[in-house]
Amino acid sequence: MALSGPQRTVATTVGVVVVMASLGFASVPLYDLFCRVTGFGGVTQEADAGSDVILDRTIKIRFDASIDAGMPWDFKPVQREMEVRIGETGLAFYEAHNPTDRPIAGTASYNVFPYEAGGYFTKIDCFCFTEQVLQPGETVQMPLTFYVDPEMVDDRDAKHVQTITLGYTFYETELPEQQAQLATDQAKDVN
């Protein structure tokens, strides 16, 4: 059965809308995958262990911290910068403090500058991998274990990088169900 002119136009329009909607839903995961694979936009890599190769060349790592406008925590790097050999495993700490009278959950996002170095900054363990919950008045030091991939020295865009800045921003998130219930129960006991 052949479609008439108006039916063909409607079918084509519906087809275009379906394709565009599908591309819209797929764009975020595909972009995220692209960034993780290439390090584009300062996205870092993850590894289970340190590098097997350690070069004599050193690189300076700077640490930065900020909080979202609604996040009441105090958050800062314990050490503002360190120098490591490329391929050497580094260990840094960030400190978070909850000055409020209630438990608060938070999640950290990160960025790396310059962007060319993002694909070579490799995290072995990081507080940013999981949600953090701080109790009222609690202060914690959260570790970050990392290395800079030696392959960076072979990248024409990244090989001249001498300083990498790693920045984290903490955002408040909903408390996990068990923590939220505990906070609700404690509030009832006070009243």
How does this structure look, described?
- This protein is α+β, with helices and mostly antiparallel strands.
- It is 25% helix and 36% strand.
- The protein is built from two helices and ten strands.
- The chain has helices at 5-38, 177-190; strands at residues 45-46, 58-67, 74-77, 81-85, 90-97, 104-113, 121-126, 132-134, 139-148, 163-173.
- The protein is flat, with a radius of gyration of 23 Å.
- It starts with a helix and ends with a helix.
Describe the SSE topology.
Layout (H helix, E strand, L loop, with lengths): L4 H34 L6 E2 L11 E10 L6 E4 L3 E5 L4 E8 L6 E10 L7 E6 L5 E3 L4 E10 L14 E11 L3 H14 L1
Parallel strand pairs: 1-7, 2-10
Antiparallel strand pairs: 2-4, 3-5, 5-9, 6-8, 6-10, 7-9
- Quaternary organisation: single chain
Count the beta strands.
10
Main beta sheet? 5 strands, mixed
Beta-strand content: 35-45%
Distance between the termini: 73 Å
Low-pLDDT segments: 25-42
The radius of gyration is: 23 Å
Q: Which term fits the overall shape?
A: flat
Which labels suit this protein?
191 residues, 5-stranded mixed sheet, 36% strand, 2 helices, alpha+beta
Please outline what is shown here.
By secondary structure, the chain is of the alpha+beta class. The protein has helices spanning 5-38, 177-190; strands spanning 45-46, 58-67, 74-77, 81-85, 90-97, 104-113, 121-126, 132-134, 139-148, 163-173. The strands form two sheets. It has a five-stranded mixed beta sheet with strand order 1-7-9-5-3, with no helix packed on it.
